[in-house]
Request: fold
Amino acid sequence: MEKKLNLSFDEKWEKIIACDEKYDGLFYTAVKTTGIYCRPSCRSRKPKRINVEFYDDRKQVENAGFRPCKRCQPEVEHSPHAGLVRDVISFLINHYKQKLVLRDIAAHVGVSPFYLERLFKRETSETPRTYLEKIRVDKAACLLRSSGLTNLEICYEAGFQSPSNFYKIFQRLKHCSPNEYRAGEGKEL
Reply:
């Protein structure tokens, strides 16, 4: 199974600032000054950016000499299916540009499509498709802020198959159009 995520330091930083639970278990935030590591969703006070290091797995961060946070308890698995869900999320993050169907995702983790959809929804309250849409919109939002690409180029770079689908999903998740988001007029909830 894949473990390494294709996320930049800035993208990971955004996830910890937002306390994004979707990325729990996929990477860990270590604070050099305190010697503590946390989940991306930890609600503790955020460290200075220069004091942060990111690690892809728990063994790696513990071997570097960091201890688990007592508040978010990153060393505790909260569900017997957490590993499978984490593998699916990792697969979605690493393959968001490709045209993915449930059958391919299920084959990657070795379960039936029906079982995967039911289990994933129970664990995350979302289907793999809606989760993938959020990942793609997050990538598009990052590109809108940091690149000079056109909306059409960003649409395809983020893995959307059509511009109309891109605009519809972006509007639904970000509550503004890509142009409004780029101009800083968007309201993120």
User: Anything to note?
Assistant: Residues 9-68 form a domain with the DNA Methylphosphotriester Repair Domain fold (CATH 3.40.10.10). The chain is about 50% helix and 5% strand. The beta strands are 28-31, 36-38, 52-55, 67-68. Residues 38 and 46 are 10 Å apart (CA to CA).
